[in-house]
Design a protein that fits this description.
CATH superfamily of the largest domain: Spore Coat Polysaccharide Biosynthesis Protein SpsA, Chain A
Largest sheet: 8 strands, mixed
CATH class of the largest domain: Alpha Beta
Number of helices: 11
CATH architecture of the largest domain: Alpha-Beta Complex
Shape: elongated
Strand content: 25-35%
Radius of gyration: 25 Å
Distance between the termini: 29 Å
CATH topology of the largest domain: Spore Coat Polysaccharide Biosynthesis Protein SpsA, Chain A
Helix content: 25-40%
């Protein structure tokens, strides 16, 4: 199968957006603008490689995700060439080049662009021009025929070898990447664009995009609780992380109390029962199973009902082992599995001050809350 790579250009200064931080790093509905695009492409099953063009000083755009970073250039074209150079892939690789300031990319547009490259040299999403157009010269207006005029959006799709060569040979002042192949007579397919793919340029655009991207319907909240007792062993597994200890947790699977609680929280949010309904301990298939299987299955079921996980909060209750040294690894592992931004995953730990079975160091309990939003 032909690989599909994505290049997200996020190196611009975005000064017209009116804030100290570039617009692609500002918050939009609880996520940074760039995270919307990274999340959408990371979820798409056909995308095999992602390169984010961004300076190292902005930090990892989204922790836990697998992607490469490329250093931006002095111009947008130089930034794109830097990103393309980071893709050590065959020339026939399909590559989608996307502006980070367009957070509304979705699966429909991605599919259309990937398919279009089977019959064309390039493809781009467009919207027809619906407003009246005028030119002004010396105080006089003249109407412009709108026939055949389009607003061109991103991502724009190409074969890797072709766009790399075209951009390298082009001048520095291209209006977009498509301009690099137009002069060579490339066959270009135009696919339906979307208002959700509008570009954030000015401060007022954040309000417009918030309205366009806000999911319809109310969020769902679920709560989960799990407990496991200790038995002889040398480690416990919590949120997918192996933690050395003088005992292990007893259970049919790997007894990951943190992920079991979160699994129940997700299932509860969409009223689909609990973990025992889907993975009964009487079933030998789940003997010593990785609890990530359960958690990912709950996410799949929730998405099938039209909901995506927005954020989650896990609290581990125990006297020992100490969770804090492993907390960031637990957050990162959970974010990676669920394809969530790191700042959407919280892991905390507490004790019961020596009271109860956890206080007596007989086991570990965990509770979790999951917030699910309707899929936009």
């Amino acid at each position: 199968m032909t690989r599909v790579a994505v290049l997200i250009v996020a190196g611009g200064k975005g000064l017209r957006a009116g804030a100290e931080a570039p617009k692609q790093w500002q918050a939009l509905l609880g996520r940074r603008v760039v995270d919307w695009s990274i999340d959408a492409f990371s979820r798409h099953p056909a995308v095999t490689d992602i390169v984010v063009v961004a300076s190292a000083d902005v930090g990892a755009p989204i922790a836990g995700q697998r992607f490469s970073r490329a250093e931006p250039g002095a111009t947008r074209t130089q930034s794109v060439l830097s990103g393309l150079a980071a893709l050590e892939l065959p020339d026939d690789t399909k590559v989608l080049i996307h502006d980070a300031a367009r957070p509304g990319i979705d699966e429909v547009r991605i599919n259309a662009l990937i398919d279009a490259l089977d019959i064309s040299d390039a493809a781009a999403p467009v919207l027809p021009v619906s407003d009246a157009l005028k030119t002004e010269k010396e105080g006089r207006l003249k109407s412009v025929d709108r026939t055949g005029l389009y607003r061109v959006q991103t991502p724009q799709a190409f074969r890797l070898g072709a766009i790399r060569s075209a951009l390298a040979a082009a001048g520095p002042d291209l209006v977009d990447d498509l301009a690099a192949v137009e002069a060579a007579g490339a066959r270009v397919t135009l696919v339906a664009g979307s208002l959700r793919l509008s570009k954030i340029t000015y401060p007022e655009d954040f309000d417009m995009m918030s309205r366009l991207l806000a999911p319809a319907g109310a969020p769902r909240v679920g709560k989960g609780f799990d407990v496991h007792e200790f038995e002889a062993g040398d480690h416990v597994t919590l949120c997918g992380v192996r933690i050395p200890h003088v005992a292990k947790l007893k259970g049919h699977s790997d007894a990951d109390a943190g992920w079991h609680a979160l699994t129940d929280a997700i299932l509860g949010a969409v009223a689909l029962g609990d973990i025992g309904d889907h993975f009964p301990p009487s079933d030998p298939r789940w003997k010593n199973a990785d609890s990530g299987i359960f958690l990912k299955h709950a996410q799949t079921l929730a998405e099938a009902k039209g909901y995506r996980i927005d954020s989650c909060d896990i609290t581990v209750i125990c006297e020992a082992p100490k969770v804090k040294p492993h907390r960031e690894a637990m957050r990162a592992r959970t974010a990676e599995l669920l394809v969530l931004p790191l700042d959407a995953v919280s892991v905390k730990a507490t004790t019961t001050e020596g009271l109860g079975f956890t206080g007596r160091r007989e086991g570990i309990a965990a509770e979790a809350i999951a917030v699910l939003m309707p899929k936009g």
